[in-house]
Amino acid sequence: MQRTTSRRPLLARPVVVALAAAVALTATACAKTEDDTADNKQSETAAGAEQKVATPKAGGETCTIDAYGAEKIDLKNATVGFSQSEKEANPFRIAETQSIKDEAKKRGVKLLTANAQSQFSKQISDVQNLLAKGADLLVIAPLNSDGWDPVLQAAAAKKVPIITIDRKINAEPCKDYVSFIASDFVEQGRRAADQMIEATGGKGEVAILLGSAGNNVTTERTKGFKERIAEKAPDLKVVFEQTGDFSREKGQQVTEQLIQSKPGIKGIYAENDEMGLGAVTALKGAGKKAGDVKIVTVDGTRNAVQGVVDGWISGVIESNPRFGPLAFQTLDTFTKGEEVPQDIIIQDGAYNADNAKQDIGKAY
Amino acid sequence: MAEATLRTPPLDRARVLQWLQTYGVYAGVALLLVVNIVITPHFMSAENFRTQAVQVAPVIIVALGMALVIGTEGVDLSVGAVMALAASVTALYLGYGLLPALLVVALFAAGVGLANGALVAFIGVQPIVATLALMVGGRGLALVLLPQLEDLRNPALASLGSGGVAGIPYLILIAAALALLVAFVVRRTTFGRQLLAIGDSRPAAQLAGLPVRRVLIIVYVACALLAAVAGVLATARLQASDPTSLGNLMELSAITAVVVGGTPLTGGRVNIAGTVAGAVLIQLLTATLIKHDLPPSWTQIAQAIVIVCAVYAARGRGKR
């Protein structure tokens, strides 16, 4: 018994490996998706889609290269390191990384990139690797806000300026990092509330599909929405708040439960596009018509804006992922020795029935 | 000796526990139904029951396969990854039509099942470790094949997800048919007997001359195929292939359904009706909490309580 069982593996192992390899090889060889003929998902950016700074505040804190303690360099000859936080599996991250790469190419700057695959420890070592590979400047899309001390010390030792995009790191601006470029998530929530008030007429019951728990994007988008509703339309009641985990499937499932238990619901605020699209699928499945329940979402992906064109979604608040031009412009200004703001807030666009058709090219 | 002196009271307790293990899950479902009928508005409608059944169908299908694997004293952690793989392969091959795409999905799932089965049966890797490898690798492969969500517009797939016969969605019919099939296989076929014998004691089954390796491999392949069916159905319902989030934590939902349904993790016994009821119980629990707009963290706590109760009942049985 013992002997036979110990001899088998020698045969079985190559079989398993060969099987796995065969499966992996045949997988991509003759795949044919629905879109093979009409591929319209080009990533070219329509004119006017790049980020604009919202408020070049006169009184805002600024930072200069002297105050930061680095040396002036010409951006053209510099090497820029970019550390992405999450894997490029959603439109936002894809557009963000692409935008950084495009802008580096346009300016002829040497770019090193790394992706932390949503693991914070990997992001720390990613950034350390970028420094070791000779990055003169760093652009970081942080996964977490805390825990950056080892990296900041390493960067400070080499006098490498850091710009963080889309999420902030908890450190001292103009000492540990230069500036922070991002959207104002609370403001996004407020603007979503404005759209919701307009779509519903400011009366009735609405639901919120929350993002993942314990995420600052979720808390801030919720806070802004509720604040504005309370202030402008007290007759609009938030009667349902459940998490859809930022995913389409959960958005669909939760919406199915919602329209069962509260058939009179007038509006759904989804904190990202995917959950909003899940809600649309749920409403379609329940035999509702476009516009029966007003949906407002945040992000501005192409699918959601198409939903606005089709009439299923009332409004989409944009969260612009195209950080490339603004990040490099900030680095350029900074390395020339001029002053740059410490907090750069982006002005996000919005899509509704009036502009969705003509502006869909701006969606990502 | 202690047992002898305390004979009467513990016997009663044991009987209660055994009753709980066998029928507790049905009692739980009945209790939740009654509670909901009383406190939840709009609960008693065909539409509501259809929604709950459609949402639970993929979980039931995965749990059926999981019950078989647990019956052999194994566990399959790769079911969620197989669902994701099924989703991305469906999207990748839908250009040929629905049926060819489904065949390729079956091929991939069978591949994963074979790998799981081979690792467990031939190499003797612990099931939890073997399937853990494919849980990580399978989702990785799914993401390599299809890095991001893709909308699907195939009309046949759409009707599979939202259509039905005489008002009963295909999803429910498929889940019911598979449940009956698996129950039949476990109860009435030689294969079912062999499966349970292996779960009871693998060395004994081996000594008795049962085809242990063949049965194990077939069980893991069947489990992967069932997970793939669930993945395709979930994709059809969503009308989009989302390998990043589809099937996330599905392995845990499936194991929960099986354990709550009264199938012991020690193998040798499979309770298919209980497994279905276990999945329904968790679904009703989640639905109740969502409908009453309670924080999602409560759902997790409630699930934990149900699991602890189920395990407690199972422990009582194991000691006897």
Helix content of chain A: 40-55%
Please report which band the strand proportion of chain B falls in: under 5%, 5-15%, 15-25%, 25-35%, 35-45% or over 45%: under 5%
Shape descriptor of chain B reads globular
The helix-strand sequence of chain B is: HHHHHHEHEEHHHHEHHH
The oligomerization state is heterodimer
Characterization of this structure:
The complex is a heterodimer of chains A (364) and B (320). Helices cover 43% and strands 18% of the residues of chain A. Chain A has 364 residues and is an alpha/beta fold. Chain A folds into two domains: 52-182 and 321-347, Rossmann fold; 185-319, Response regulator (Rossmann fold). Chain A has a seven-stranded mixed beta sheet with strand order 1-14-7-6-5-3-4, sandwiched between helices. A six-stranded mixed beta sheet of chain A has the order 9-8-10-11-12-15, sandwiched between helices. In chain A, strand 11 (294-299), helix 10 and strand 12 (315-318) form a beta-alpha-beta unit. In chain A, helix 3 packs across helix 11 (324-335), helix 4 runs parallel beside helix 5 and helix 6 packs across helix 7 (216-232). The longest helix of chain A is centred in the N-terminal third of the chain and has 28 residues, at 2-29. In chain A, 46% of the residues are buried. In chain B, strand 2 and strand 3 (168-169) form a beta hairpin. Chain B is globular and about 55 Å long. Chains A and B meet through helix 1, strand 9, helix 8 and helix 9 of A and helix 3, helix 4, helix 5, helix 6 and strand 1 of B. Chain A: InterPro entries: Peripla_BP_I (IPR028082), SBP_2_dom (IPR025997), TAT_signal (IPR006311).
